[in-house]
Design brief:
This protein is of the alpha+beta class. It has a 6-stranded antiparallel sheet with strand order 1-2-4-5-6-3, with helices on one face. The longest helix is centred in the middle third of the chain and has 16 residues. It starts with 6 loop residues before the first strand and ends with a strand. It comes from Chitinophaga dinghuensis. GO terms for molecular function: lyase activity. InterPro entries: ApeI-like (IPR054545), HotDog_dom_sf (IPR029069).
């Protein structure tokens, strides 16, 4: 889990089928030592794990990514320049699993867009 060490939740609002939150990234986390020294960038896998953690918490169950229909990394996140990131996760229960749409952004800058299926 990345929550509590890689990021902390500073604000969160949840309603049925949706969770919106703001997280604060820990720029001194060891991940940034390797990704990349002197030029830290949030790895895409960490963005995806953050979405997964918020979805699991919102649905109170363990979730696993089954299919990514769209996973676009639009801008890099430097935790020193942008320590706060907004997360929007929308989900809908369907026969095949949880249909999810998620966005990581801050103000007018979008970092990642995701659409896919979790089970």
């Amino acid at each position: 889990m990345l929550a509590g060490s890689f990021y902390t939740i500073t604000e969160q609002k949840q309603e049925p089928g949706q969770v919106n939150a703001t997280i604060e990234l820990n720029a001194s986390h060891p991940i940034f030592g390797g990704h990349f020294p002197e030029q830290p960038v949030v790895p895409g896998v960490c963005m995806m794990q953050t979405i997964t953690e918020f979805l699991a918490a919102a649905t109170s169950r363990k979730v696993t990514l089954q299919k990514a229909n769209q996973m676009k990394f639009l801008n890099m996140i430097d935790p020193r320049q942008t320590p706060l990131v907004d997360i929007q996760v929308q989900y809908k229960e369907e026969e095949t699993g949880l249909k999810v749409t998620a966005i990581l952004k801050r103000e007018d800058k979008t970092f990642m867009k995701f659409q896919g299926l979790f089970k």
